[in-house]
Fold each of these.
Amino acid sequence: MSDTVMVRIDGEVIAAKAGQSVLQVARANDKYIPALCYMEGLSAVGSCRLCMIEVSGVKRLLPACTTPVQEGLAVSTSSTQLQSYRRMALELLFAERNHVCSVCVSSGHCELQSLAQEHGMTHVRYPYNFPRLTPDTSHPRYVFDPNRCVLCSRCVRTCAQIEGAHVWDIAGRGIDSGPVAEMQRPWGEASSCTSCGKCVQACPTGALAEKGWAVEEMTKQRTVVSTLNSMRESQ
Amino acid sequence: MDKARIGTCWLDGCSGCHMSLLDIDEAIVDVLARADIVFGPLVDAQEWPEGVDVAIIEGAVSSTDDLELLTTARERSGIVVALGDCAVTGNVPAMRNGIPTRSLLERVYVEGATEQPGIPTDGVPALLRQAQPLHAHVKVDVHVPGCPPSPETILYVVGELLEGRVPDVGSRQRFG
């Protein structure tokens, strides 16, 4: 069948559908590749660099979420070198902003925190940036705390691609970039926001949270986006 | 065999990590059979002694006093353990780091004071520009994250060190 391609992931030969990414094929076959910016049901952007893999015949590393499968593709997903780069990427995420797990509503339910533990990250080897960032509490139901943001853009894509409101965007450049609501208005004044809260559910950390929760109390429904997307695709 | 010598101290922390250390309960009797605690909030010594085998340090480095004690402990100890998130990441004490020290002190002791406004200088050490984790200032041999680290992890770390092994904290603890 022409739309089936055979690929090799960590030595195992797997049948994949043309058009799928390496990450999608790996996950469908119970092969774990860590990722933070990827979310099933949204477009892939390859920004967090945690799903980097080694592709046979390619000298540089490629993100599994944006690398499409092709006939004969052979990849390695968990070499010692990849593990060390992933830990480095995690440490840089922690160094960039103020991720104070001990006072975070999402502690114990946070993808960044879990990934750090999973990778045996006991400390950050790089100097902390300690930026001064102010939370946006203007929305009546939700809060955005940029201190906890990892710039994954899952909120931006969820709002644009699932809710269709496109309230969020990433503004600024480099280390100074971050999500803004409606061309940098306070979230509470964003008239296009439907207050659906799907961005909050999509956020991997405590950067977007419901108001009214204390430390460790904010749990998220991670499957909201993928469920809505698969329901639409099946129509 | 001579007993090992352990020193502990807390810098800018809440003492919660020391509470978790005490939470190893009766296991502390076994630890004390193999080691003496020669410095720390739990004992009387006034100065960090020479020849300490293991220094267990809680808290971030926030003041000139913190830095002096940390430097002395590092010089006089074989292994330095950063115990808990404040020592490992800066944690809550580092939440002030984006604010200039002067503005911070004025906000608290002048604007925030109802009586005798003024920044205290007598008998208190000067604040450093930022509260930092231990390894921003000295070499740290073992990092134990957690707020606080669990008694089980602390007992594992101390047990390994007393056996002459370097503990692999790895995925035993999460931050927070």
Note: The interface with chain A takes residues 82, 85, 88-92, 94-95, 97-99, 130, 132-133, 135-136, 140, 143-145, 147, 169-171, 173-176 of chain B (CB under 8 Å).
Amino acid sequence: MPRTLAASIAINRFGLGARPGEFDAETTDPRDWLAQQLTRTSSFMLASGGLPTTRSAAEALGSYLEDLKKKTEGGAGKMSPEAQEEAILQPLNQLREILIAEIEARTLHGLTTEAGFAERLVLFWSNHFTVSATKAVTIPFAGVFEREVIRAGMTGTFADLLVASTRHPGMLLYLDQAQSMGPNSNAGKRRDKGLNENLAREILELQTLGAQGGYTQADVTEFAKALTGWSLAGGRTRLLAPGADPGDFIFVDRFHEPGTRTVMGKRYKEAGEGQGETILRDLAKHPSTAQRIATKLARHFISDNPPAAAVEALAKSFRTSGGQLPALHETLISLEDAWNPQAQKFKSPNEFFLSALRLTGLSKLGRKGIVSAYGLLGQVPYQASSPEGWPDDSASWAGPDAVIKRVEWAQAFADRLGSNIRPESLVRAALGPALSAVTEQSIARAESASQGLTLALMSPEFQRR
Amino acid sequence: MTFPMMTRRGALIAGGAMLLAGSAGALTVSRQAGDRKFVLVILRGALDGLAAVAPYGDSYYRAVRGGLALPSAGDVGGVLPLADGFGLHPNLAFLHEQWKGGELTILPACASPYRERSHFDAQDVLETGAAEVFGASDGWLGRALTALPPELKRDAVAISGSLPLVLRGSASATSWAPSLGPSASDDTLSRLMDLYAGDALLGPALASAIATNSIASASGLEGMEGKGRRGGPGAYKGLADAAARLLSAEGGPAAAVLSFDGWDTHANQGAANGQLALRLAGLDTALRALRRGLGAHWAKTVVAVVTEFGRTVAENGTGGTDHGTGSAAFLLGGAVSGGKFGGDWPGLAPRALFQGRDLAPANDLRSVFMTVLQDHWGLERDTLGRTVFPDAGGVRAFSGLVHT
């Protein structure tokens, strides 16, 4: 049990909540406990046995597309809208299985990991670089993108993470980059069309500078042209890159818009694949990017409207360290504001769900229970509705309907655990001194153990971090 | 076919006579906003307005739309003809019936005041009603409800898990979504209300949810488990059914907000068939369900269907369209004076396009909303132009969109 408020903050605000027995030793220093997770690559990894690699995900996508073609070929125009929908949805089941396995693996890891801060950072960055499985073609890649790009990138620099993210098939497909062609490229000239701006725009707006970061429509178009040719091997493009395996990043010269590009006032000479990468690396070190990342990180761990001084300290760390992520994360835990005794953040559904399970010490939960809980609570992993990712403010998560859905889930969960639980001691073991007398009394007066646990999970202090 | 009405920017389409700000006169609030329902449907992701409302008679239409162009009326998969060379997408059969019945007004080229191309900033402007991004922290519909006199019914429900920005700012707005699990026990809820006594976030949220749940159970919505939760066009109808039942319940709210996702068609958009066609079919089915579910209330209802911005006029390199500017908006319902177009039509001529690529934003969506709020709910023009839509005093108003 966290015995000091600082220990409670370390494990609840920065981590995923305490499991019974976790943080019992009085000698554990909360800041050391957090800092030690930052530089160990292993803190960020999850056992991925049985989950797809990028290549096997690409193969699964290929067989899905073939199946889809067989089902819809020819007759689509004559089908009713319902029949069209059915023909499109049915072959999706093979891809859904992959996604459910990813969701299950990440959840079980979240229940048992001893590096809760590292896992929270993974979730933060995975949300920053959202690859949502809301499109059929991204379903098999969303999980492997998180494992092979985000988790693997947590001890490096922001620039490397940005480049790795942009090259991954998950991102190339999610934001429609894979088939984008320059209008004057060899392929584009023959088709008289080809540019798709989506990835370039979202990188500028969401992943680097931010919407107020000072770029124009012309920057978007120029950057999109520089990125033409960035694609993946699979389907027809494999013919263009002999020897590549499905899912490999490839640079397709025939799609690439030739010439010098100007982005944010700087000229970039023609350098094929290198042109796009140089722009990405310049965007990564732009002051607007430092500001945006600092603001998002402070908003996530401190409060919906974080103090300007905290944001500036993070931005400065980002600028001066060359975007070193461990240094940035270490700056975060050194900030006075991050240790405000009063919890400011309302937990996201995912944070609430994982911390509730951890509090009970469960390390297993059936697949069906996991997926339906996320659905009820309103945050199914890998299914954010847009490239902006999940929201990060209480106004988005604490709406009336969302709150009552939490009560419904908490009640059903507590009922399932039965009467052999001691809600008061469980919640005390999780929150330590952050548990209020009012909540304690409310739990003590509950008519059943299960109602007591429902009240404990829904208490104002357990809903926040 | 020739198309005389569409040759010059600024031409008025029938029925869209403009009045300058203020000249509509101050209306006193005398109408019963409670039984005059308003439903806002937000198509999130940016609807390609030219796919929904095709200007197939425009001489530039086929050349510029390429593979996205719809066949002419009467051909296989052809548009459903309206007037003046416009036609609806073939999957919008219900909307076509509404048009013929005089209960649908189409504004083919609208936009909020936002002129960049970020979904999130654009939805911010669409929902706050401000003239710029982050110009307000709550929403125009929330403020409009608050501005109604207290003796009128002025509550609203969003059919979603959280309260959308457009409704924030009203103390009586709530959100509701179909449950997937057993409902919470009354005793536990009442204990939680005690526990939340000093909690400014959770206390009001839970109180509001409990109140909405009691309306939902009185109107038979309990047991709708799972319906409306599935993503995509198949989900739209379930959400519309839920809105209709809540609105038409005894003591039901005055307004509802529905969000339909999935309109960001960057690749393989399709034309008469395909991805976007499926979504349009889903939208049409949902609107039909809304009418059926509202029953007698339909006669006094206005439904506004809008999106955050339009898409490029031309097809992009991946069979889709990229973020644009002007798009179509729809007003339908028994209280709508319809069967006509509203606003200006800028045309598809290359020089008429916004920045050479997008349908020009000829009409400000704020004027559409202001006109509805003025004529349907009796809100004063002055209040609308200052508090509901900050800095919109100079925005033009329409007339004749809604039966007053």
Note: Chain B touches chain A through 71 residues (CB under 8 Å).
Amino acid sequence: MNLLTIRDLTLSIHGTEILRDVDLSVDAGQIVGIIGESGSGKSMTAFSIMQLLPRGSVTTGSITLNGIELLNADEDTMCGLRGNDIGMVFQEPMTALNPVKTIGSQVAETILIHGSGSRAEAKARARDVLNRVGLPEAQFPLSRYPHELSGGQRQRVVIAMAIALRPKLLIADEPTTALDVTTQAQILDLLRRLVREDDMGLIMITHDLAVVSDMADEIVIMKDGVVVETGAAKTLFREMNHPYTRALFEASSHVPDRDGAGDGTQLLRVQGVSRDYRMPRKTVFGAVPVFRAVDNVSFTVERGESLGLVGESGCGKSTLTRAILGLEEVQEGAIEIEGEPVFSDHHVNLNVRRKMQVVFQDPYGSFNPRWKVRRLVGEPFHLLEKAPEDPRSRVDEALVSVGLEASDADKYIHEFSGGQRQRIAIARALILRPELIILDEAVSALDVSIRAQILDLLADLSDRLGLTYLFISHDLSVVRSITDRVLVMRAGKIVEQGATEDVFENPQHAYTKTLIAAAPRLPDAISA
Amino acid sequence: MSDTAETGWIKPALRSRNLMLGLILTLVFVGAALLSYLWTPFDVTKMNIPDKLQTPTGEHWFGTDHFGRDIFSMIMVGARTSIAVALVAVTIGMVLGVPLGLWAAARSGSLMDEIIMRGNDLVFAFPALLIAILITAIFGPSALNAIIAIGIFNIPVFARLTRGAALSLWTRDYVMSARVSGKGAVRISTEHILPNILNLLIVQGTIQFSLGILAEAGLSYVGLGAQPPIPSWGRMLADSQTMISFAPHLALFPGFAILFTVLGLNLMGDGLRDLFDPRLRRARG
């Protein structure tokens, strides 16, 4: 008998249909991956199992766990099951833990709520569980607080809380999306080991095909609240019966078509740049400790080239970006565009700033919600000494060049989807016809199919307008697909640089090797 | 703000019971205050000793006081005093506090930030009413001094609120992008930060407004607010104190006036907060 069986699950919230006829089953010891883009209903499926649906939800069908019907179970029954029989791991380890309680007491608490026994026993069990998830007592006593741990370690604590009572079913909703690739690989290993050891069923919800493809036994692909394809992981990618599966697969490994390559002239030169941050004093009269975020970094970018900058969180990528954009002054070294320094006499050189623009990661946070698109896109005009004579047509032109319409200029930003917003962000970056565009994780927050479109757009723009890109990302596959050269950054230093293909095929530095090995890979496509 | 992101906020506003009830109560008192400039049932400065201490009648709806003045008229004119004092005090608080908060946020971590915020702490450290009494004791009791005293205590409230909200906005990508476009702190504060924290300020404004009315009543009660013969709710309460055993209506009506105005403003603030809450807005969108 299956551990979990979902039959004909239909969910509507305030009359809007969210899920339709969802069927899926999980066996003990089996890993089922649910894949879908945003709005596909993958998380709502998980919340239906937990019966943690928002108000106004109406469900029909059946969800059974070991023969117990969950769909119409009352709250008391569900409270007994949640945590005990079903554990859940969320995406964001930063918010899933209570910052004012120690990790030991948080894990012990979940044991106490359901379990019997004394506080001391719960503490002892919490210790065992933390050991199991790879947080040994020597470095991670129970008295640690969440802020003393890294993102990956916090996610381990969250997993410890979810598996503390040895649930039969674990639901992990995008458990590694917020983590770096090397940490992601470790967390995936941990989940795999726990499933094997406890003979637990695992539902792994993700938007990333690669994460799930080499881990799951069974894959469920969802789109618009409907399961479009289900199959064993081994065969599903070989057959890909549904066109959406194929589209998703192709978008995930999409390589945009671009001519690329620099023309040999130097556009950006970063020479021996270092940036220190002052840390809080340890003692009242002690010296102020400094943290070197960027350490003696040098590189150049040729005109027309696309340069990738890869590194994990905290490696100094963002600091370097801010320094190049002239938002912060550096302590040592020089940053020049076409031979002109970004900073002169502690003042930003406006002439240089006009030559570069930036596109940020978050399509929702990049725009003032109270402005219309025309004003948003036209904001960089402020950099000009005098306003252009035809700002309207310049904005219209920029919008058209990113695949939107001129009439979109009179709308508010909330009327656009994430992908469209990212196009508007690119239009804003293009408006002054800059030489260099810094793409700071510009496609990381987008769904794979939208990401493929934006990458195509970027490739097309660089060919048409001769743009130079500095492409900053933690996503190796994206960097590989759109850059000519790549820099690998770690702890403020550039550890390796070279032509993208060379670096990926034949990494020299140990860290680059680790990064590339840790990146989840799609199974080799069987050409459609 | 009607032409911004929250298109279609009128319907949810009409649906919000708190907001509507608060709005109606507030409008009743504002209306009474405005009307009192044109017309009151009786002249509030004219004594009429023979008619003193009447209980409510058809002629004197709320009765008369110990000088025979019409209480209904006095409440109407008193609303004028209360609302004027509170409104000007809140305006002082906003006009000085908000720019200070924006400045502190824009230069966060700098010496200026430190000076502004520690100055705030200093003002916060004294009980508001005590300093109000001090000011009126030095400069003499008057409505104007009450306004200044209450206004000063609104400054740190708005400065702190503004700084907190502005700080979180300064980390947004759109502010970053404005900086990339070469905009300075003043432009960013006025173009990007202020419009996005206006909701908060309006909500806080209504709450401070109601606190201002309470403070004015308190100051008048101890004789440091508006001076006779200008009617004031707080002094009406104080005057009624000695007669409360045989003429309770003297205390009742100004008491209810204060209660319902403050209640109305608080309900309105609450309703506005619900209306402006981005989470609720998203649910609607």
Note: The first helix of chain B runs from residue 10 to 15.
